[in-house]
Amino acid sequence: MEVEKRAAQFTVTAHFPGKLIMSQHRSLKGASTITAKRNVLKRFERVEVLKKRGQWKEGTKVLGLPKTKPDA
Predict the structure, then answer these.
(1) Count of CB atoms within 10 A of residue 46's CB?
(2) Rounded distance, CA 34 to CA 51, Å?
(3) 57: which residues sit within 8 A by CB, 6+ positions away?
(4) What is the pLDDT of residue 47?
(5) Which residues pair with 16 in a beta bridge?
(6) Bridge partners (DSSP) listed for residue 12
(7) Distances (CA, A) of 26 to 2, 53, 56, 65
(8) Strand partners, 21
(9) Distance from C-alpha of 2 to C-alpha of 18, rounded to nearest angstrom
């Protein structure tokens, strides 16, 4: 039953002898398809921005960082 539910997410695009080729569900596609500029930075990106701006001191904890906007 579970296999049938998972299989329902995919559509068969071609059938070759011995191989079944299936398309990938749109929710499983990679992040490389994102072309828009992200407005939320990951923690290491925020630290890099703070270092560039001179607002980062070595030894500072990475938790509770101040809000930062990405450089335009």
Answers:
(1) 19
(2) 27
(3) none
(4) 92
(5) 19
(6) 22
(7) 20, 39, 39, 34
(8) 14
(9) 23
Residue listed under structure tokens 């990679």: 30
Bridge partners for 14 per DSSP: 21
Judge whether 55 and 66 are in contact, CB under 8 Å. yes
Q: What are phi and psi of 21, to 5 degrees?
A: -95, 130
Count of residues making up the chain = 72
DSSP code string of 33-67: G--SPPSS--HHHHHHHHHHHT---TT--STTPPP
> What is the model's pLDDT at position 68?
87
Q: What are the average pLDDT values for consecutive 10-residue runs of the chain, which has 72 residues?
A: 54 63 77 69 91 91 87 71
Q: How many CB atoms lie within 10 A of CB 65?
A: 16
Rounded Cα distance between 72 and 63, Å, is: 24
